[in-house]
UniProtKB/TrEMBL annotation:
Keywords, sorted A to Z: ATP-binding, Chaperone, Nucleotide-binding
Any GO MF annotation of the entry: ATP-dependent protein folding chaperone
Keyword RNA-binding in record: no
One Pfam family of this chain: HSP70
Protein name: Chaperone protein HscA homolog
Biological function: Chaperone involved in the maturation of iron-sulfur cluster-containing proteins. Has a low intrinsic ATPase activity which is markedly stimulated by HscB.
Family: Belongs to the heat shock protein 70 family.
Organism: Bordetella genomosp. 9
Keyword Chaperone: yes
């Protein structure tokens, strides 16, 4: 993968040259895999014709994991070894996982939580990789060939650690990750909205256990996530629980039901709720273990009354996301419905009322994310459909920054920022009278310039002479929708400006990105030590510089003994400033600043007196 890669215009390759790429929706409840065949995206089915793969994995001692429907079917018998909703733990620590309220045997491990199972302690990455491996096998069986790569979707709010964990899970499953794509963006792409009118779109995603709402802004074919909101503990399951509770309340014996019977009630409640999406009335029915048949009639109308408070909670999240984006419901051009639970007619109605328009439901809400991911994967693999000329939304896979004193990197745009993006930061001069500044643009996660990739260098000239630290130079990084990085440096008082444009994508392969990221993690400690040393060295150099200038200007303010001490400290700092011993450098800096304290105070007095001389008192107030 190249950074910010934009596919080139060109002919659609001949069928035999088509490269097989898939889109994967790695969901909390269900996962899917889709591909583009004969120009049409389609979800791939398993041997039994099912499209959804429940995101559930059961672990046994000395046996391969059981993934999907079979794992879910035996969940009640072996809850501790049947991992569901593992997505909630991706990139999370044990404490965070415990706080989620889910009852697994969590093991503290450096970085990410582990789950204790009959097959050993497993990280969420491994569990996810088992789900992904199953989808990969499904795709290869259906397509009859190896895959060149996959686009995997993640929630828009996923942070770096969660995204990295998803990437690692895919690698572990033997998938080449073409890109991670935000779920709402994938859904919008499935609807072809990237060709629609520019403006704001909302994506309402009600899944099995989570609710996400995203506000996207479309400009020149590129989506930008402008706000996200939601509730990680609100989904179809909660509606099931409402029905189950209500049904049980009508049966006096229910309070004595076994765990097994309660579980059966939940399953029946879900089935009833799903039937109510198409029928006006049904019943919650299932056999108890002792053979008694439970059958509680339920109308859609009654269910909708029960469901109203939950739906209102989702609407409140949506209103908040809009507010965060500084928008009103009427500013939204289209609303995309995602997630199986948006099949409930009451949800569609409520969302339609909030936004004052009929939401988009033509595509299957379970499949829409996977379909959009497949379109994106197809494009990234180099299989352009006729007439397809859309730009790809992307994130920056490695941070962009500047070299600062001492060969250190100051990050300006952090990795995973969605493009287009612009960030600015102010820098200052290092020396008195410095009239030019050299700007070195680098990319990477490491603290030292030498470990990052150099992208461009340019100079800002014509800075008016000022004392060190007085100039204000604003450096702006801007990555546009075409993936071009423009860097501008501007001296604020005079407006002198210099700039450069670079294409950071050039020549950075997926492997390189992987290696650089892995190194940045491995090297974090060494980097922190190196940064500290460099910072001390820079401080030493700066101090030596300014003490020398001060001695030249106001050396007469020191008596002989004082001068000797300062000279000695100066010599020591000069000797130490390139040393590798951080303590030696720090010691020399301390001694030099202490030995010049009184001198600095006297200089200050002198300059104030000079400034005041010849002015009347009333001018000074
Ligand atoms: P996730 O994104 O969390 O993996 P999904 O998008 O697959 O989840 O949604 C799963 C939820 O969708 C479940 O709660 C399921 O009951 C619900 N669902 C699926 N089909 C229907 C339907 N016809 N009516 C109502 N809810 C449905
Ligand atoms: Mg989903």
């Amino acid at each position: 993968m190249a950074l910010l890669q934009i596919s080139e215009p060109g002919e659609s390759p001949a069928p035999h040259q088509r490269k097989l790429a898939v889109g994967i929706d790695l969901g909390t409840t269900n996962s899917l895999v889709a591909t583009v065949r004969s120009s049409v995206p389609e979800v791939l089915k398993d041997e039994e014709g099912r499209v959804l793969l429940p995101s559930a994995v059961r672990y046994l001692a000395d046996a391969p994991p059981i993934v999907g429907h079979e794992a879910l079917a035996t969940q009640a018998e072996d809850p501790a070894n049947t991992i569901v909703s593992v997505k909630r733990f991706m990139g999370r620590t044990a404490d965070e996982a415990r706080a989620s309220g889910t009852a697994y045997d969590f093991v503290d491990a450096p970085g990410m939580v582990r789950l204790r199972t009959a097959a050993g302690d497993l990280s969420p990455i491994e569990v996810s990789s088992h789900i992904l491996a199953r989808l990969k096998a499904r795709a290869e069986a259906a397509l009859g060939d190896e895959l060149v790569g996959a686009v995997i979707t993640v929630p828009a709010y996923f942070d770096d650690a969660q995204r990295q964990a998803t990437r690692d899970a895919a690698r572990l499953a033997g998938l080449n990750v073409l890109r991670l794509l935000n779920e709402p963006t994938a859904a919008a792409i499935a609807y072809g909205l990237e060709n629609a009118a520019e403006g704001v779109y909302a994506v309402y995603d009600l899944g099995g256990g989570t609710f996400d709402v995203s506000i996207l802004r479309l400009t020149k074919g590129v989506f930008e996530v402008v706000a996200t909101g939601g509730d990680t503990a609100l989904g179809g399951d909660d509606f099931d629980a409402l029905i189950a509770e209500w049904a049980a309340s009508s049966i006096p014996e229910a309070k004595d039901w076994s765990r097994h019977d309660r579980r059966a009630l939940m399953v029946a409640a879900r089935a009833a709720r799903e039937r109510l999406s198409v029928e006006a009335a049904t019943s919650v029915r299932f056999p108890l273990r002792d053979g008694t048949e439970v059958d509680v009639p339920l109308t859609r109308e009654h269910f909708e009354t029960m469901a109203a408070p939950l739906i209102e909670r989702t609407l409140a999240c949506a209103r908040r996301a809009l507010r965060d984006a500084g928008l009103k419901p009427a500013d939204v051009r289209g609303v995309v419905m995602v997630g199986g639970a948006t099949r409930m007619p009451v949800v569609r109605r409520a969302v339609g009322e909030l936004f004052g328009q009929t939401p988009l439901t033509d595509l299957d809400p379970d499949q829409v994310v996977a379909l959009g991911a497949a379109l994106q994967a197809n494009l990234l693999a180099g299989n352009r459909l006729p007439g397809e000329d859309w730009l790809l939304l992307d994130v920056i896979p490695l941070s962009l920054g500047l070299e600062t004193m001492g060969g250190l990197v100051e990050r300006i745009i952090p990795r995973n920022s969605t493009i287009p993006v612009a960030r600015a930061q102010e820098f200052t001069t290092f020396k008195d009278g410095q009239s030019a500044m050299s700007i070195h643009v680098v990319q990477g996660e490491r603290e030292l310039v030498s470990a990052c990739r150099s992208l461009a260098r340019f100079e800002l000239r014509g800075i008016p002479p000022m004392v060190a630290g007085a100039a204000r130079i604003r450096v702006t990084f801007q990555v546009d929708a075409d993936g071009l990085l423009g860097v501008t440096a501007r001296e604020q008082s005079t407006g002198v400006e210099a700039s450069v444009t670079v294409k950071p994508s050039y020549g950075l392969s997926d492997d390189e990105i992987t290696r650089m990221l892995a190194e940045s993690i491995d090297q974090a400690d060494a980097d922190a030590r190196a940064r500290m040393l460099r910072e001390q060295q820079v401080e030493a150099r700066q101090l030596v510089e300014s003490v020398r200038a001060a001695l030249a200007a106001d050396g007469d303010l020191l008596d002989e003994a004082e001068r000797r001490r300062v000279d000695a400290a100066l010599a020591q700092a000069e000797a130490a400033r390139d040393s590798d011993d951080v303590e030696a450098v720090r010691g020399a800096v301390r001694e030099l600043s202490e030995s010049t304290e009184a001198f600095a105070a006297r200089r200050m007095d002198r300059s104030i007196r000079a400034a005041l001389s010849g002015r009347k008192l009333d001018e000074l107030t």
